[in-house]
Amino acid sequence: MASLKYAATIISSLIVGGVISVAAYHFMDSADNAAASPSSERKVLFWYDPMKPDTKFDKPGKSPFMDMDLVPKYADEGDAQNSDGIRIDPTLVQNLGLKTDKVSKGRLQYSQTIPANVSFNDYQFVIVQARSDGFVEKVYPLTIGDKVKKGTPLIDITIPEWVEAQSEYLLLSATSGSPTQVKGILERLRLAGMPEEDIQRLRSSRTVQTRFTIKAPIDGVITAFDLRTGMNISKDKVVAQIQGMDPVWVSAAVPESIAYLLKETSQFAISVPAYPDRTFHIEKWIILPSVDQTTRTLQVRLQVDNPDDALKPGMNAYLKLNTQSQEMLLIPSQAVIDTGNEQRVITVDSDGRFVSKVIKVLHESQRQTGVGAGLQEGESIVVNGLFLIDSEANISGALERMRHAQTPENAHSGH
Fold first, then answer.
1. How far apart are CA 367 and CA 345, in angstroms?
2. pTM of whole model > 0.90?
3. Cα–Cα distance between 59 and 44 in angstroms, integer?
């Protein structure tokens, strides 16, 4: 009898325990459901592959690009509703080494070495002619390429017209010829090409000269000379062409984008491979008026002293340009994002948001870029790590909204 009572007691305890367990289960289940109510559930905007964040998916699953699960993008992440920029987890920023720099004021420094070439100075070019018909009595031993000094004899010639005019002059001056008539004959000799020193010799010696020497009028190099002894010569025949050698010209093609920097002679220096340790004095320089439409370059011509003829026309040379721009806002060139239609930078505002800004680029040199508009001195800009920001912006869509918000149509939509 006692055993029956003991068994009944055990069975009753088990039944009561089961009832309590069931009640507790229902209580906990209702609590969990309350905690997971729609009011606290995070909203998923889309799913994406972290290795290809620019592609979005409507539902979870395996990535078609990588062997990994798609990751949800929640509405409360990354300032998805903030059109002023994007936020990135500070830990991620630090781990990937994202660096910023300050917008500063300064001058762009230009230091370039540009190929150049040496040529004759066309301001020192003469054509020697007899200017009257005659014949060559003697040709002095000269040829093309010879250097001559001013006054060097080139040829001896006989010109009948000069002989006849001299006789007329002596006759009039010895008889009753008026001063006007006598002077007229001398002017006729000058116009016919008779050298001035021969005219003065006629006046002093009062003797007719039949043989005349044509001389070099300047120092230089003979570039044309083909007369021979005994040949006839016409009044329009070229006796010789002589090209001066001091100074010479040095010409170089300079990018048109830096034309505004060319201001004074001290910015230039000339070097020649043939004389690596020698410097050359630049007298003056000029920018020629036209631009090469193919290379978009300007021709700069410098007049360089050449007293010892060291610089030979045709030589290779180098034009060294050292100058600087006017003061402007400067940023590292690697911070500039060129989309093809515009240039942008990523700035960091006081709240730590990354904001895209359109800028106006003026010039670039030595990894520094001059900015004309879009930034202010002291602003922080992202120098490297732009891939991280671009990925985050593509995920959240913030960068695209920033571009959209800055279009002219939207700028006036509130008016």
1. 15
2. no
3. 9
Alpha-carbon 168 to chain mean position:
69
On the question of pLDDT at 254 being above 60, the answer is yes
Burial annotation 92-126 (CB, 10 A radius, 16+ → b, else e): ebeeeebebbebeeeebebeeebebebbbbeebee
Is a pLDDT exceeding 80 seen at residue 389?
A: no
For the chain, what is the radius of gyration of the CA atoms?
46
Please give the structure tokens belonging to residue 25: 């289960």
Residue 359 confidence (pLDDT)? 84
Strand partners, 243: 125, 221
Angstrom CA distances, 96 to 73, 88, 215, 309, stand at: 21, 11, 81, 62
CB 213 within 8 A of CB 158: no
| Nearest Cα to Cα of residue 300 among 255, 339, 354 | 255
Q: What are phi and psi of 187, to 5 degrees?
A: -65, -35
Q: Find where tokens 């006017």 sit.
A: 326
**Cα distance between residue 111 and residue 226, in whole Å:** 48
Q: In this predicted structure, what is the pLDDT of residue 11?
A: 41
Look up residue 42 and give its DSSP letter.
P
Mean pLDDT of 398-406: 48
Query: How many other C-beta atoms can be found within 10 angstroms of the C-beta atom of residue 178?
Result: 9
How high is the pLDDT of residue 92? Answer: 52
